[in-house]
Design goal:
The chain has one domain. Helix 3 packs across helix 5. The protein is built from five helices and no strands. With 116 residues, the chain is mainly alpha-helical. The relative contact order is 0.15.
Length: 116
Amino acid sequence: MSGVIVSNYFLETMGHPSSLMQGTITALYDVGAVFGALGAAVAAEPLGRKRTLCLGATVLAIGTIIMGTSYERVQFMVSRVITGVGIGAYSPFLLHVGLSLMMNRLHHKCHTGLPI
């Protein structure tokens, strides 16, 4: 975001936001990610892992399309939240897979594959 937020095109399109507003726009992505991770934790049980990941990818794609076509500050801010929700839906699954792989690599070979 740091390369985009200082470009002249971005500043002109978004009405030359103040540094506080630039920080808010940047932080909205993380706010959305928190809600996405919490939503994925709730949705994973009834929907399953694959459907939850597909839902997160769909939300991420919608947020990306809105972000790419934004021409106002509010629209861009909403797209940051939506994109954050989509990426947040991925994070619990990526964390689980990453930790599982790491645990298998760090254990002695006689313990590899045992349930944790």
